[in-house]
Amino acid sequence: MEQKLSKPNQSVEKTLTIIELMAQHKEKMRLQDIALKAGLPASTALRLINTLLLYGYVTQDSTTLRYGLSMKLARLGSMVSAHLDLRELSHPILLHLSACCSESCSVAIAERCQVVYIDVVDGPEGILRITQRIGKSAPMHCTGIGKLFLCDDEALLQEVLHSPLCAFTNYTLCTEEALRRDLSAVKNTGIAFDTEECELGVRCVAAPVRDYTGRVVAGISISGPMHRLTDDYIAQTLTKPLLYAAHRLSAQLSGEKEAALFSEI
């Protein structure tokens, strides 16, 4: 039986509104402005802000009397981030994505100039690249997820370009010109491809996972045989659930509300 949620506490709601409001402003704010933008009486806003002051979540400038958030919230955020297990969050999403697409799916993170696979769900046929096993690494320049990181970080791209772009197949992009041209397409579409660049006969499409700052912290990919992962099949069948999966995991990492659930696909 589904548990019913109790009614939200209005004082907590108002306090969270004030915190989010102050977080959106770079400068410290006057009490009147906080109350106005939060839609609260000044007396109510002051009472809630004084509580936040008491517990160290807000500071007040002694000269201007304006209020701002303290670093205590940043410390709490760091503590939460340290406890978040990306694989724990991603695994149910990968399971659902693989079931939706009937293909192999994986999540990988960046480690130096490599991508490291932290979770993999095999498709029904069990067709999966050898590199796509948990804990295995692969070069960035020839993997869909790797290209997502290269698009997001010019310094990382420069580091990769200063190393040999090794060829794994005849389709591997081994020159700066070819790689940059491909990365330009990734920036335009928001998804990245590995078309037989890492292993012959295998194609991969990947989407970025971002944290609350918008930085790419991981990638989700779908892999399968070339004869099945055609351009039309990817565009008509795979792109939407892939982007939903990436957005869902990004939302969990950033604390934002999910725009849609898999049940809506």
What does it look like?
With 265 residues, the chain is of the alpha+beta class. The protein folds into 2 domains: 10-79, Orthogonal Bundle (Arc Repressor Mutant, subunit A); 84-264, GAF domain (Beta-Lactamase, 2-Layer Sandwich), CATH 3.30.450.40. The chain contains 9 helices and 8 strands. It has helices at residues 10-23, 31-38, 42-54, 72-83, 86-101, 144-152, 154-161, 176-189, 231-254, and strands spanning 58-60, 67-69, 104-111, 114-121, 137-139, 192-195, 202-210, 216-225. A 6-stranded antiparallel β-sheet has the order 5-4-3-8-7-6, with helices on both faces. The radius of gyration is 23 Å and the shape is elongated. Mean pLDDT is 87; it is low at 259-265.
